[in-house]
Here is the input.
Amino acid sequence: MTVHSPAHANAKMTLETEVLALRRRLAKAHRILTAGGIWPLTKGHVSARIPGTDKVLILGHIHSEGRSLIDTDVDDIVTVDIDGIWLEGRIEPVDERFLHLEIMKARPEVTSIVHAHPTYATAFGIAGVNILPVGNRGGIFAPQVPILDFDRQIDTPERGQMARDAIGDSVALVLKNHGVAVCGDSIENATIATFALEETAQLHWIAAQVGPVQKISTGEVRSVLTGARKEEFYSHVWGHYAQLDPWHEGKSSRRGGGGSAGGGAPSQQ
Here is the structure.
């Protein structure tokens, strides 16, 4: 005798499976960014929309537990709604979730955001100098990376709206004396763009010690941002960053939950 599950039960199971996969990918992004030195003292966080809902996954406030994000696992990821209300998770969400949520409200194409404190990009915000698109990883930041002239925590909807207005349609925003926010259409692409931003800021700073900084041409920017080259900008480098994960396939994992998050090309949300 064949037993048929109700359609709504299958749909619920599918969503739960999808959310678990998102949690694994999000935990992996935190471990990669930590291993890559993107956030000093491992203070930062990444978010991801749950497709087809008004819910967002984001890191819980594990910083208060004195833990390193190199050990981030699925149980450290919590669920909030698009207005920042804590819905699920063992620990409360980070206070700066509004930085993520207000940008997501305004930009439906953004499905993941990284907030971090990379040294070179943060230094540009301190100096009040916009990072220019230089080098072969800088094209996505044209014409320049905007700076939010506000140096306090983005821990209210109103402050999140300030960041939303400052970033506009840009990939990244530098927060004065604070760090950066970087957007992507997937968890992996937001992670890659965060590394690209810090690489671009470092290259800009080095070039400025030699002479006037010449940003890449408008034609090259268009080329980088369209077609196959845009896809390659992300997909060709994910394998490199994925191997930074201490739980990457072939390395010993410390917990069972995150070890299945594997490598591979970025999967779009």
In short: Helices lie at 7-35, 97-106, 119-127, 157-167, 187-210, 218-224, 227-235, 238-242. Strands lie at 45-49, 55-59, 77-81, 86-88, 112-116, 147-148, 172-175, 179-184.
